[in-house]
Amino acid sequence: MTSSSLLDVELRPGSPPVLRVGSPGDPAAWAAEHRGALRAAVLEHGSLLVRGLGLADADTAAAVAGRLTDRLVGEREAFAPREPRPGGLFSSTPWQANQPMCMHHELSYALEVPGLLLFACLTAPTSGGATAVADAPTVLAALPADLVARFEREGWMLTRSYNDEIGASVEEAFGTDDRGAVEDYCRANGIEFEWQPDGGLRTRQRRSAVVRHPVTGQRCWFNQVAFLNQWTLAEEVREYLVDVYGEDGLPFNTRFGNGDPIGEDVVQVVNEVYEANTARNPWQDGDLLLVDNIRTAHSREAYEGPREVLVGLADPTRLAEHAPTA
After folding, report:
1. Lowest mean pLDDT, pick from 64-73, 87-96, 184-193
2. pTM surpassing 0.85?
3. Helices 58-68, 35-45: crossing angle, 10 deg rounding
4. What are the φ/ψ torsions at residue 255 (nearest 5 degrees)?
5. What is the pLDDT of residues 211-262, one digit of tens each?
6. With left for phi above 0 and alpha for psi between -120 and 50, is residue 167 left, alpha or beta?
7. How distant, in Å, are the alpha carbons of 224, 241, 249, 306, 322 from that of 294?
8. Which domains does the chain have, with CATH numbers?
9. Helix and strand tally (H, E) in the chain?
10. What pLDDT sits at residue 94?
11. What CA–CA distance (Å, rounded) separates 274 from 104?
């Protein structure tokens, strides 16, 4: 089966598309049987929440993921290292439960990005904690035209400062602490780098803020301009980091592609447009959420109680226009 029309997908405003299944005895076998239709539904809608699949443990989640994609990939240039789980899955990104993680596209600052994300909820939180989604073409259309034009013209820039005190270390981000290997990776991936006297590393990379979907051709707002900007941080956290490291030494920040700072007003506009176009559905134990990472942004809302959501990064994709050269 390859057509998404073969699935009875429930479409409701304010919620991602939902497919309810009747507790299949073997979730992996069910996923294999419906692989084509599920992937077609994700391509059509941008995301799909599969409810009732019964993902009770990491091994089952990994078996399902292995039926739905031919290639799960690791993570390079991580901000907060995930813990590996069975079958190529990872834990969720470490993030304080009481702090939301705003909308973003996974690894949109890398040259090779996951085309498909798989989220498996083993334990739903007591309250909150939804992995919400937002349609990138809709967000693009809702943003101010002059702002979009500037980002299309210049792209966006990510700046990072690696040290041993906060965030991912050089070894955690690049998979090695060998300077030569790190430099080779940076050169191969369009990343400017500068070693600091204390042994720390600072990098800059410029990427396109708007890309075309490789299959549908839709123009998508595809970046982490707001998520990784200093103005998205809680005020007390931002003030502390600026006081300790200075603005040029922040663990991460974003700028316009020409290097100009991005103001708090721009970050606020982007996040407001995301919020106005957010679809959410509270997690239930055993849920599976499939997300087209280029078509759809995702977030994680604050929560209470235990929460275990495993993540699969799949279908590595290189976008021809993702690294501007002008």
Report:
1. 87-96
2. yes
3. 80
4. -140, 165
5. 999 999 999 999 999 999 999 888 888 898 889 888 888 889 999 999 999 9
6. left
7. 12, 31, 30, 29, 11
8. 4-98+106-127+281-318 (3.60.130.10), 138-272 (3.60.130.10)
9. 9, 19
10. 73
11. 9
